[in-house]
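Q: Study each token:
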Amino acid sequence: MNDYAGQHEVVSENLTSQIIAGLARYVQEVKQERKSHFHDGRKAQQHIETCWKQLESSKRRFERDCKEADRAQQYFEKMDADINVTKADVEKARQQAQVRHQMAEDSKADYSSNLQKFNLEQREYYHTHIPNIFKKIQEMEERRIVRLGESMKTYAEVDRQVIPIIGKCLDGIVKAAESIDQNTDSQLVIEAYKSGFEPPGDIEFEDYTQPMKRTVSENSLSNSREGKAEPKFGGKSKGKLWPFIKKNKPPPPPPASASPSAVPNGPQSPKQQKEPLSHRFNEFMTSKPKIHCFRSLKRGGAAPEDFSNLPPEQRRKKLQQKVDELNKEIQKEMDQREAITKMKDVYLKNPQMGDPASLDHKLTEVSQNIEKLRLEAQKFEAWLAEVEGRLPARSEQARRQSGLYDAQTAPTVNNCAQARESPDGSYTEEQSQESEVKVLATDFDDEFDDEEPLPAIGTCKALYTFDGQNEGTISVVEGETLYVIEEDKGDGWTRIRRNEDEEGYVPTSYVEVYLDKNAKDS
């Protein structure tokens, strides 16, 4: 079973190294390329829209100049027909009409030029730029499909390589199952649990009709019965006849009286009574079993903190995973402490914003959490170093591909208390406790869906300058106005956006937020 599980681990590791890692990098490259293509498309669309606006502007200007020229011509004709108007006024009107006609001709030429330019740009847009962009996107998708097919072929090859070894493992499992001898197993249990006591002898007949001294049988299963004349030792001190009873603590054997008519303080029989067999049998029934390995067959037990119930390689993986989780928690607490420290500095510089002393308790609590997490991480790192020191020098993959694990034998039956190995050296814990190689599943179709940006729910003004050096934060300058896209959820951070590509978190106390009423109501 260990060899069989090991081959599955080989498959998992090969898939992780040969497929998953490469696909993860390829996905990032494809996303970047797709983003570039869409950027080119938006750029081309903006250019054609700009040309259309210029055309509309020149068209309106041409229309306005034509109307002005018509009005100037009509005014000149009116002045020329009026006999009361001086010659100078008529000449002035004529010159004004000529100027307006010249402006109309210039606007016409400009409109014609812009119209030709727009028609040319429109043909380029619909017949060259956009088809090229879609062609590049299509080629990118086709390369992605080919890469997926190659990954599937690689998976098939990886699985095919271990099929012969898996077949040998299955043959070994069948052979081991066929070699099971129930009689031998039963004898092992009998040898481990037998008490070694001799069966009791026959109970002697005690004749109460003769005034003779009675003694207790050494091999009797029960205590001697006390006479009615002895109220101190009679009644409740009588033992049970059969041993199959459950008692937490066997009672002490009562003293035997010399004779049925003896006084309570009389001399006892010189013959000492042995401990009844029922008490010894009860002690055996309530005692801890010698073979602890059988207890390890019970499923679902609580795993120890140091994962000592797992095989060495799986234990190392579990410990490494635990150390990584603790380091992430430590980094998170340190970021929180840094944020509280900055907020305290702000309160010290601006007392009207808050009391700095109110943050001391939280700062102390965060520091204590960091210290606890560090101690915990040191403990798991020590266990990890111990496990890595015990692992063999050769690689785990080479050890598994050999198809034969070295048998781990236990020197004695009592060494199985750890419930990790059975007498034949195989592990008896559930396979569900083994560390699984967690693979980040990538849905390629979902990866290429457009990510809609969060809508702005208001604006904010930076009260102080914030240098966002940590991942996920954004730098702001005092007095800068930005968009709010996510309110403070109670952790002291507000998500803001500067433009289409720049967004991140800033401390809520560093900005003054003006939420949009409609967005807040919704």
